[in-house]
Design a protein that fits this description.
single chain, 3 strands, alpha+beta, 115 residues
Length: 115
């Protein structure tokens, strides 16, 4: 499928999921996450939803909780708000890029302090 169309669908899903979490969701777990990116597959069957959280909990456990408990709820709400023939399955993945960036920044700071 056209890459531009996929990116447009990604951004639309991100916008809708963020709105659902902010305005409609009552789940305390959902209220404590931030969705950073969505990536839909070429066949539009699966959408990886990347998130970060300030919860002091193992990220694997957070992924499991979100995928088991809230993915179906968010998928049904997404179906009400988006015009797609088939609504993709949502799979939550912890976004490690922020932690990775902070670690790089810390290393650079230590190098500059050592000079």
């Amino acid at each position: 499928m056209n890459n531009i169309k996929l990116k447009r669908i990604d951004s639309e899903i991100l916008k809708i999921l963020t709105t659902i979490i902010f305005e409609e969701a009552n789940d305390s777990l959902l209220k404590q996450i931030t969705i950073t990116e969505c990536q839909i597959t070429n066949d539009l069957s699966v959408c990886k939803v990347y998130f970060t959280s300030l919860i002091d909990k193992d990220y694997k456990e957070l992924e499991r909780d979100l995928n088991d408990e809230t993915a179906s709820y968010l998928r049904s709400k997404l179906a009400e708000n988006i015009d797609l023939r088939n609504i993709p399955e949502l799979r939550f993945k912890y976004d490690e890029s922020i932690e990775y960036g902070n670690n790089i920044e810390k290393i650079i700071k230590e190098i500059h302090e050592g000079e």
